[in-house]
Amino acid sequence: METWADRVRVVTFGDGRQVGDDRICAVVAEAGINHDGQLDIALDLCRAAKAAGATYVKFQKKTPRLCVPKHQWDVPKEAPWGEILPYITYKERMELGQDDYHSIAFLCKELSISWTASVWDEPSLDFLLGYDPPFIKVPSACLTDLDLLRAIRRSGRPAVLSTGMSTLSQVKAAAALLGPDRLVLLHCRSTYPCQAKEMNLSAIQTLRGLFPVAPIGLSNHYPGLWLALCAVALGANMVEAHLTLDRSSIGTDHAASWEPGGLRKFVQQVRRWEEAKGDGQIGPVESERAVLHKLRRCP
User: Is the pTM of this model over 0.85?
Assistant: First the structure.
């Protein structure tokens, strides 16, 4: 009888793409809320993700009055459009509506790039399922929302789970509810931006050992490219990185994001690494044979 330990570390998403060992690293351009509540910016982020070679573009969907703790509702927040607003009002204005998502879905189909979103509550999950997403993203903030995890499991969709702010026991409990056989786990630090000394990239290998059938990746909040590339070299099967049109913009995520040129460079370097890592076999390659004949005196 087959056990999880016998399975290959691969998950098939709803668009037919496979993520896992011996597959190319999936790069998720996290548009998130970097659209600042404006559809035209959201569409430009989709175009930028496609032009950079990203595998997916992803947004965030939430019902603010369900997700934002009440003690935060009246905290003043500077909005990108220049107002100081109660935090709950700011979060509501940052949400895109159904007409906006219809436009996003239409454009992504035209561009041939798959899109999805992080869901922060069950109504948002139901909303997203109406668009037939390739996978459901669970943000770190919702890792302990067991009712939401159960609802995602019932949906039958593969899940991608970020592990920021979480203990190992919490991660294990969430993975068990979602189903480790159709789950991608992303090591994450929920600080924006994250410092290098806090990244703890070795946790990628720890997660690989603890979850033998789940592809492992990184949800990146470090502003540079180098550490995300190190994550790929350590075996990350997926890298999610925030995308913005302007890192100097006002907002929580912009400073921890990459601009389109940075995302493009990252994708290029990942694909170069995938070419260079090879199969690990020892022996001369074809281009060495003429050099071998010329330089080696003893056969």
Answer: yes
